[in-house]
Amino acid sequence: IGNTVLHILVLQPNKTFACHMYSLILSYDRNKEGPGSLELIANNEGLTPFKLAGVEGNTVMFQYLMQKRKHNLWSFGPLTTVLYDLTEIDSWAEDQSFLELIVSTKKREARQILDLTPVKELVSLKWNMYGRPYFCFLALFYILYMVCFTMCCVYRPLKPRTGNKTSSRDNTIYVQKMLQESYITYEDELRLVGELITVIGAVVILILEIPDILRVGAAKYFGQTILGGPFHIIVITYACMILVTMVMRLTSTAGEVVPMSFALVLGWCNVMYFARGFQMLGPFTIMIQKMIFGDLMRFCWLMGVVILGFASAFYIIFQTENPENLGQFYNYPMSLFTTFELFLTIIDGPANYDVDLPFMYSVVYFAFAIIATLLMLNLLIAMMGDTHWRVAHERDELWRAQVVATTVMLERKLPRCLWPRSGICGREYGLGDRWYLRVEDRVDPNKHKMMRYTEAFKAQGRDNYEKGLEKLEINRDILYKKELSALSLSRSTSRTSSHRGWEILRRNT
User: Fold this and answer.
1) Distance of CA 488 to the CA centre of its chain
2) Quick one: which of 86, 129, 144 has its CA closest to 418?
3) In whole angstroms, what is the distance from residue 210 CA to residue 208 CA?
4) pLDDT digit string, tens, across residues 391-407
5) pLDDT tens-digit series, residues 419-455
6) pTM of the predicted model, to two decimals?
7) Is it true that the peptide bond before 323 is cis, omega within 30 degrees of 0?
8) Transmembrane region positions (predicted)?
9) What's the sign of the alpha-carbon dihedral 376, 379, 384, 390?
């Protein structure tokens, strides 16, 4: 019951009342330390009160709980060294990491905890010492891997075509080699080494990604921008395309260019994932993700309807015409592609002035130019501008959350020998087996001066008020006018002293 009340207090809107009641309940807890403590009992979602405060973005309760966990090591003038307990914060020995819970929640208030002590210092320590070097090495390794795969695709086994052309529009001069013909020369053996590296890399990608999908869940894993949701889809699809290409090569199936082309595009697009490790590029990748999966996805539905309607109309108009004189609409797939190019103004309106064009072509093209070019493209620009304005206010905050998510991901996947535990063991200071983070805090003396002056003004106001009451008690029998004059004199004196105090405060500031 006590643990349930603690969880309820974390969700209370009245933060001050919740903190006082939280302390009151813990004062009756017999097992204040160890696994039997009320603070260490998790709810049905596996969240302790401390983790629940982080997930809900309750910064007041989080700071209150952290103040209870800190130990002042020493103080010298304005400098103070504090040890913060990293229990439930550090992701080293946690199955459900506190940092991962914060970056995976949809509440913006929760991300503000990443700027509070000691979370900010812990993330900075992990990222600067181990996260950034490992992430840069991983980015370089992936780029070299993609260069290897690209070279294997460029020099894939081809041979001249020997069969006769079946159509005047047939432009094929090379065909794919059979498996027995693909690995004969020394150059083929070098390409085979690159292909083996590519396939091994695709298998490693799937082995690393599938356990995280099962642990987090597909909806959260692919739907969270901070966790790299779209990039996980891209890299998994890329790995699958590599395996499909391998099967088609082993079975000598024609058409391997289709999965190979998809793999090249997806593999190189995934390089943008590594931009999150750099402050100059990371926020812009967030902007691109928001625009692609927000504005562009909705716009594509409207664009598809317009292209489908006008492409059908163009195909019907030129269905009776000679395709040699105007071949952009000679069949239905080509009509769809040409209409798409016209929609994006990649090409001008096709026309051949040596022959008579159908009258309806001019009418339909006029309507298409008005709707597509003038209306819908400007609508897309306005939508993206609005998204840019909204995301610009929180892109740096989202980038910091991405850095945290990347740090946790690297810490989980790297061996323990390559990523030592952060912090200081409490046995060095007689604090048990828990781990602590040492933070040096500098106290601003001017801030304390201002606080003292404020307290002095409050005390001065109370003294003036008490003196006024004493005058009223003594002069109870004096006339009403004299009482008013006495009160006015007291107020003027208070104003004069307050003005003098504020002048002192301004000079010190």
Assistant:
1) 61
2) 129
3) 6
4) 777 777 777 888 888 88
5) 777 777 777 777 777 777 777 777 655 555 555 555 5
6) 0.72
7) no
8) 134-158, 192-210, 231-251, 257-275, 296-318, 359-381
9) negative
